[in-house]
Amino acid sequence: PGALDIRHCDLKRLEPQQWLNDTLIEFGLTYNIILGSNGKDRLLADLVHIFSPFFYRQTQLREVIECGYRCVSSWTSKVDIFAKRYLIMPINENCHWYLAIIYEPHHVL
């Protein structure tokens, strides 16, 4: 996984009555799924691809919708997402977070 910069302003969002931001969501998912196993479950980590929270937002832009896959292909150019068992896509809409989890994406096509 790529590096994430956690800043002081991000940490303040962990206090009560604060909303989580993209950076904290991505860190939480990456740490818990990829790094949190302390190497005990590398198999699981190898089966999962976690998209950046910005990926879904990017796919919703009008120009991306019109040009299709070509406009987002660089987001997955270094990973074969169809070789993964799980694709995890954090989505923020209307100030609420949820996850889209795609199981065995090679069956989607």
Description:
By secondary structure, the chain is an alpha+beta fold. The chain is built from five helices and three strands; from the N terminus they run αααβααββ. A three-stranded mixed beta sheet has the order 1-2-3. The longest helix has 14 residues.
Short descriptors:
3 strands; globular; alpha+beta; 109 residues; single chain; three-stranded mixed β-sheet
Could you provide a short overview of the structure?
The protein is α+β, with helices and mostly antiparallel strands and 109 residues long. The protein has helices at 8-12, 22-35, 42-47, 53-59, 62-67; strands spanning 48-50, 86-93, 96-103. Strand 2 (86-93) and strand 3 form a beta hairpin.
What's the number of extended β-strand segments? 3
Strand content: 15-25%
The separation of the N and C termini measures 26 Å
Average of the residue pLDDT scores: 83
Give the topology.
Elements lengths: L7 H5 L9 H14 L6 H6 E3 L2 H7 L2 H6 L18 E8 L2 E8 L6
Parallel strand pairs: 1-2
Antiparallel strand pairs: 2-3
